[in-house]
Amino acid sequence: MRLPEVDAVIIGAGAAGPIVAKELAFAGWRTVLLERGEWNTAADCRKDDLRNQRTSILGHPFGPEDEGNPRVVVERDGRLRVVEPSAGGYHNNAACVGGGTLSYGAMAWRFHPHDFRMRTEYGTKVPAAFADSTLEDWPIGYDDLEPYYEQAEWEIGVSGDDSTNPFRGERKRALPMPPLPPTREHEILWRGALRAGLHPFHIPMLRNSVPYGGRPGCMRCRWCVGFACEVDAKCGTQNTVLPRALGTGNLTLRTGCQAQEVTMGPGGTATGVRYFDANGERQEQPARVVVVSASAIESARLLLNSKSNLFPRGLGNRHDWVGRNLQGHTYTGAYGLFADDVYDDLGPGASVAICDYNHGNAGMAGGAMLANEFIRLPIQAAGIRPPGVPRWGKGHKDYFRTNYRRLVAVQGPTQEAPTFGMRVEVDAEVKDKFGIPVARLSGLKHPHTIEVGNLMAEKAEGWLRASGAETTWKKGAGQGISGGQHQAGTCRMGRDAKTSVVDENLRIHETENVYVVDGSVHVTNGGFNPVLTIMALAFRAGRHIAGAHRVRG
To answer: What is the rounded CA–CA span in Å between residue 316 and residue 304?
Structure first.
């Protein structure tokens, strides 16, 4: 069914889509926002420690449902494996209104200025990082994004205090909310960092520490990461920009809608989106502007499935860059056991960080911020044990009875060297429940990423030892496919259409009216959780789109 034309249709209501929708709605645009999931609340996700044992803590509980939404993973030996959303290796992002911002840990990092110019910073210093890598500079810099970082921090809501971080980019305005009071673990690690000559600070968080935006402050419960906040203190797009956009009367939100393809006219201009609605009926939404905001894996999948006479290999894929350069983060770190209890049952857990190792590591391109970890529920902690401890039986139980409250984890998201071979394709045979070809994931991490990740594990272990840990052990880097909750890179931005998918304003090079606005446009993914950068880019893109295209009277 062909619906009445609107000014814009946006595909995906996660971290970015509702922000673009808000910018356009406030500019008077008639806008439709499509989301394949539902508008969930804390009532849809009870506080059950066992709920997260099978899969990614940020993914499956908020969709997609298992049946009918598989992916194909190419194993290291070349075998193909069909993976359901609840299985390991799916590399899921939550499919719901708000996306991962409904259930994330909510770290709100600005990328470091060097993160936007990795080739310039390391091209001659670390040649190993460029061998078989597509490591490159962004077409924009930190200064271009700084006002939009500020807008995200104040409009969505960020608490914390990074004033003692000497490695941050310039900040023109302090964060709107103070940090939560420190936990016992925070204080121990803070003192240890100072003893080691490091520079600890309070993690910026998209979480109310005090009442803000008409919502209360955090209640400090242990069920945070992977759960929706029952007091609505976690700041996501579903409880900030989206309600304001809907309040204009210019935005229509449709849930349960799976996009099939971006439809194209004969001149190479998009005409709208074809999708399946909540009843499984195929619909066509004409629009003057199309914004793809479905996450790095699903956005690439949609573009590759949007084939036409002008784009036989998929929209924006004339030079075979759509789906390439998939990257997430290689999480490495260390664990420490202390002589006394350090656990005081105050959420969210993560609160103190250092950025001493983001850059400036001899012989290494980039690094990672390091921070203490969120509260690990018992089922999650069961796999964390030093070498030699039994995996089951009485010895296993005795170990955790003694040590669960003495355990501290420090880790960080190592910035990855992107590669052309880490990629998303569409599978030739496997289709979802609507008959749409599914995403196929393949590739291996760059060897230099493994080197940097393992160095970050050593640095994390050093911090724990300086803090008084009696026993420490490292969590090293793995080489497999990188995606998951921090997925990025598959529609990278750049000035050259032959080596990128979108321009600096996030418009697909070969079209006049299709934009990609999510983590897929990241050239590199920084040594930080990427959501604040995704939000900042969305505010920037939304403002550009509203100014670049006239609204019809």
So the answer is: 8
521-541 residue pLDDT tens: 999 999 999 999 999 999 999
Lowest mean pLDDT among 267-276, 381-390, 413-422: 381-390
Query: Three-class SS of residue 218?
Result: coil
* Beta carbons of 356 and 199 less than 8 angstroms apart: yes
Task: Report whether pLDDT(66) > 90.
Answer: no
What per-residue confidence (pLDDT) applies to 485? Answer: 86
The one-letter amino acid code at 54 reads R
Average pLDDT score, the chain = 95
In a domain, 20, yes or no: yes
How many residues comprise the chain? 553
How would you classify residue 197: left for phi > 0, otherwise alpha for psi between -120 and 50, otherwise beta?
A: left
Q: What is the 3-state secondary structure (H, E, C) of 77-146?
A: CCCEEEECCCCCCCCCCCCECCHHHHCCCCECCCCCHHHHEHHHHHCCCCHHHCCCCCCCECCCCHHHHH
Calculate ∠ Cα 413-177-44, nearest 5°.
65
Residues 110 and 50 in one domain: yes
Domain termination site, one of 480, 500, 535: 480
**68 in Cβ contact with 48 (< 8 Å):** no
Structural domain range at position 384: 159-205+330-414+444-480
User: Is pLDDT above 70 for 271?
Assistant: yes
Diameter of the chain measured on Cα atoms: 74
Q: How far is CA 180 from CA 265, 331, 375, 477, in A?
A: 53, 25, 15, 31
Query: Tens digits of per-residue pLDDT, 372-408?
Result: 999 988 888 888 999 999 999 999 999 999 999 999 9
Total tally of structural domains belonging to the chain: 2
